[in-house]
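Ticket #4471: structure export looks truncated?
Reporter: QA, pipeline team
Priority: medium

Steps to reproduce: submit the single chain below to the structure queue and open the exported record.
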Amino acid sequence: MHNHTPFNLTNAAAEEMKLQGFELTPFPGHQQQLADILAGNVKDHRKRTDLRGLAWSSIDNDTSRDLDQIEWAERLEDGGIRVRVGVADVTATVGKDTPIDKFAARQCATIYTAARNFPMLPIELSTGLTSLNPGEERQAMVAEFVVDGDGSVREQRIFPALVCNSAQLAYSHVGPWLVNPEHAVPPAIDPAILDQLRLQDEVAQRLRRHRQEAGALDFRRTESTPVVADGRVLSLEDVGRNRAMDLIEDLMIAANETAAHLLSQAHRSGLRRVVKSPERWQRIVDLVYVTSANLSHRVTLPAEPDAKPLNDFLCKQREHDPDHYPDLALAIIKLMGAGEYVVVHANDPYPPGHFALAANDYSHSTAPNRRFPDMVTQRVLHAMLDNAPAPYTDDELAAIADHCNERDKAGRKVERSMLKRAQALALGSRIGEHYRAVVTGAGRSGTFVRVLKPAVEGMLVHGAEGLDVGDRVNVKLVHTDPARAFIDFVRI
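Actual output as written to the record:
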């Protein structure tokens, strides 16, 4: 039994935020601007299409209060399905270079930890006035597109609208119901919303098949999420993906591609979210060759990065060896590298793509309550629709991209560190237990492994010689220290 000295997760989260250079207090003028907004003194005079009568719904985590998107679909006579994704029009309320905007630009994103969240925007906005809360009239930017039977997309457009969310739903309820309609129907749902969910699921499946045929990588991961109450970790809960999460992901990818496509078509400079070709592709090739030994034949990937054959292998491996698939998926995710923001200039002929999503032109535009690049993209879209000058110069966009990339890394450090601390608290009573693990990092800072059940990551403090990302090992938990975010294993 390993008893930790009293440790306050909430205080640790604030300290970690400061350590990584995040602000904890609003900028001067913030409160006055917020008061003006809440008093109704900030007016948006754009003409908006009235879509309040549609059966919109949102699907998010059980505890989410910052609702960025709502969805609606209709079947067309030609077999296509028209989709509308309503995105909170945050920038209609938060003006460029105002105190609230400057704070958001400094933070770049909302940081989520088990003990406490650190919102990019005031919660009076992100969970109130600019959140697409059920039963409330809201301003939105609507991305509209038609999806044909083969998953191809046409008739893309974006326009400002008035909307009203009819139902706030949760992944945990909708996902099981989509797989098995005999499963309990999500509580208090109008039949029209159930029809919507079925149609949205159908169109999401079309989009997913089309992306996978193009080479999009379909990873299935399980995350070990701490259950925290009053600053205490009660347990670790392994949370995997479900069908409702896939539905939202597929519709958001299509909406983000729509925004990027329209900006490129209009020759407007803007931000893009890219995942470049993996630098460690040869390690992926080697890992796939070794891992494919249990298939009918060895798989040799091309010498140059190519997502399509990689995804074909992943799908076969998931079906053939589901027990070990999480190890493989995690290793390849680590070898892929992180996404980043780049600037696409007005006349760039070939925008950079997103390797993992098989997307040729991809923006972040669907979460402006929690990501600053989405606010930037929203302003550029408004300027395009209004035929107005660009709200940002190319140099300003480049500076925003660089800053957001740096803050993105810092934010991941905060979230990873706080997750480690919470997991260390939960694992304190399990010192000496043995686990199956996969190597997730091997470098100058040490060798790291991830245990599959519970899904936690820690350092391999002994026995790391000769190991590389993707190798499987058996380990023993020997030490945890929540104050230092340490979870230590040895090889056995």
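Status: closed, not a bug. The export was complete when the record was re-opened. Leaving a note from the reviewer for reference: Residues 35 and 258 are 35 Å apart (CA to CA).
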